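Blinded run. Sample ID left blank on purpose so nobody reads anything into the name before looking at the predicted structure. Input follows.
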Amino acid sequence: MDRLAASRLDADFARQRAAFAREPFPDLATRRERLDRLARLVRDHEPEWAQAIGQDFGARSAHETQLLELFPSIEGIGHARRHLRRWMRPQRRSTGLWFRPARSRVLCQPLGVVGIVVPWNYPLYLAIGPLTAALAAGNRAMVKMSETTPVTGALLARLVEHHFPDGEISVANGGPEVAQAFCALPFDHLLFTGSTAIGRHVLHAAADNLTPVTLELGGKSPALVGRGFPVEEAAGRIIYGKCLNAGQTCIAPDYALVPEESVPAFVEAARRTAAGLYPSLARNPDYTAIVDERHRERLARLLGDARTRGATVIEVNPAAESLDGMGKIAPALLTGVDDSMAVMREEIFGPLLPVVAYRTLDEAIAYVNERPRPLALYVFEHDGRAVDRVLRETVSGGVGVNETILHIAQDDLPFGGVGASGMGEYHGRDGFETFSKRKAVFHQSRLNGLKLFRAPYGRRFEALVRFLLR
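Blinded prediction complete.
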């Protein structure tokens, strides 16, 4: 990275730090006004966002950009604005009997300058969501956009400069060296969304400054189909979640666990659903491209390896089109998979759905638990006892029951991973608290008995202690 880029990052950070020092606890009106400007940044430029993201992907469904990026961004800002007064209110806590009439409370205080590292797959929503939480909590923020989506990054930088002219937010664009320097800044909190492998490097970079980190990673999120749920309906909902953004979603169902006797019906129903959603692929504006050649080659390698090792691959290309030069990969179902195949060891992040047969619920739960803890888990089952077993006996960042993806859109639910899929959470009040210091405050009363416990210690002290410890 050149010295100019490094000095620009340092200057931005210093400006943000100085601005926070001048206003360390913005009032409710100020925070709401900043959220209003953030909402205008999204809402007033809808066509520009769709065009920029589409250009970065080569072919990105404008309708999916509206549904999956613009809508949840605006909803999240509105939710924070509506509830902010209550979130900011100090929380009363109980005080121990022997310390009364003193009072205790928790005050949520802004941390300072927050760093946000944004991935390429949802470059608007995964910038605006953390920014909403950071601004609601009263912080300043610096955002590092992905080099894979440079047009979107440039648009965000331009619009931030227009809507936030006084150093409340800054945007950095550039490659891995810029990202490395960004993560090494002494932020008061750093939120990273991306792959598990890169997340490890981010954690190391932040450790030198003891910067608290929230990692939103990924992994292999299973979709478990129970015997008490119609297999055709489950297949339809799973394949829909899989094909949104062409599978380039951190919480997309990565593989399906299906009762062994239902695998043929599941595969056929999933194939029919995919064909109905996308009767053509090559020039279909509803079907999103894979973001770049590197990721297309990676997905082709996963498919080739699975075929070589004995998997059956059912591609869903209803119009039998050539996709050469279109940047797209056809949805595909894979059966006969096993752990020797890379597709069952690596996060897929594309429209490929392995189908794993199981015999008993015990076997399915064990299969999930033998692997790294996923960011999301989906269970399709009408039997409440079976659902409860899955909820109790598996560990995941979040769960969708009888649906995929939609838990991320619930603003009052925390979003975050666990283990290899991440640490920490945000969204709604949980995001507000992530970017706040929940400060413990003890108010001593004018009248109190503390003098009774001070030195010099004697018989009266010993009698009081015996009474306390009785």
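Unblinding after everyone has recorded impressions. Residues 62-88 form the longest helix (27 residues).
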